[in-house]
Amino acid sequence: MTSVPSSADDSAAPTGADNLADRLNELALQAALLKHMQESVAAKRDAVDAEFKRIAPSGYTMRPTVETPDGRRVQVATISRTFPGRGVRITNQEAFNAWVSEHYPTEITIVEVVNPAWQKLIKIGRDGGLVGPNSEAEIPGVEIVQSDGVGNVTTKLVQENRADLWAVARTLAPELLQAPAAAIENITEGEVQ
């Protein structure tokens, strides 16, 4: 049987190698679908924001409403475009810091940090205790912690596979598809519109 790191709720863990493989496959498909949905929604949101900024007059505010199935009208958002303005942005932090250091030295704060690469030299030894770069066993401010592990799903979908992912997801994870149902119906050439 395959070993799985324990989670907060082991009662829902599948039993048997086949069930475990099926569940892990289902979770990977859900993660891939959700990642694609997130990317699709973010791209659509960027396009909507860009068009709104292009066509909405400065100072414009609107509170759109929708009609619910029982006939009520409810406000769903407030959208607005501010008047153009000017602001200040630091574009070269190093040059700015040098100027402030020369002209306003009391406004410079030195922050001590340990080199992150050096921190990685602190390890867990064979005996299960801490070991520093020079075999130190006692290192103040450092302790060994138990990790639950990290879950990660990387998806590399080619354009023509996206429609297939959506089609499979409809049967495997319908509860995930309630909100974007209209988007799923508008799949064109392997891409959600």
Short description:
The protein has 193 residues and is of the alpha+beta class.
Descriptive notes:
The protein is an alpha+beta fold and 193 residues long. 36% of the residues lie in helices and 9% in strands. The protein has five helices and eight strands, in the order αββββααββααββ. The chain has helices at residues 17-55, 93-103, 116-119, 162-172, 181-185, and strands at 61-62, 65-67, 73-75, 79-80, 123-124, 130-131, 187-188, 191-192. A two-stranded antiparallel sheet has the order 1-4. The protein has a two-stranded antiparallel sheet with strand order 2-3. A two-stranded antiparallel sheet has the order 5-6. A hairpin with a 2-residue loop joins strand 7 (187-188) and strand 8. Helix 1 (17-55) crosses helix 4. The longest helix is centred in the N-terminal third of the chain and has 39 residues, at 17-55. 3% of the residues are buried.
